[in-house]
Design goal:
The N and C termini lie far apart (about 45 Å). This protein has three helices and three strands. The longest helix is centred in the C-terminal third of the chain and has 13 residues, at about 90-105. Strand 1 and strand 2 form a beta hairpin. The protein has helices spanning about 55-65, 75-85, 90-105; strands spanning about 15-20, 25-35, 40-50. It has a three-stranded antiparallel beta sheet with strand order 1-2-3. It has two domains: about 15-70, no CATH class; about 70-114, no CATH class. It is α+β, with helices and mostly antiparallel strands and about 110 residues long. It is elongated and about 60 Å long.
Length: about 110
């Protein structure tokens, strides 16, 4: 069995692919994530096109910055949940979640990755 010689990029470092319609190499990174009201995850991308694959690979490292990575807080996730699937819960369960959330006031604005 022969091993695939293609290298894969590490998670969170973007991707490079060939677009056959435009006949160009595309360098792409994720710059944001959002949740729809029904709690489906949607991504926002930043893309640049290049004539050569090597140019796209070089450019992707400059596109990937700490600012480009999304940062979410506890309050963001709580509000997304309560505006989505949390609305379908019983009133008592919603109150229980609200009480638990209010006990964590010191963590409301802290980024989850921290």
């Amino acid at each position: 069995m022969k091993k695939d010689s293609r290298r894969s990029r590490a998670n969170g470092t973007g991707s490079v692919y060939y677009d056959s319609r435009s006949k160009k190499w595309i360098a792409q990174i994720v710059i944001g994530k959002t949740f729809t009201p029904d709690m489906k995850l949607r991504f926002a991308y930043k893309r640049k096109s290049f004539a050569k694959k090597t140019d796209a690979l070089k450019a992707i490292s400059s596109m990937t910055t700490e600012d480009a990575k999304p940062s979410f807080t506890l309050s963001y996730y709580y509000n997304a949940f309560m505006n989505g699937k949390g609305n379908t819960l019983s009133h008592d369960k919603q109150v229980a979640y609200r009480i638990a959330y209010n006990r964590l006031k010191s963590l409301h604005s802290v980024q989850v990755k921290d």
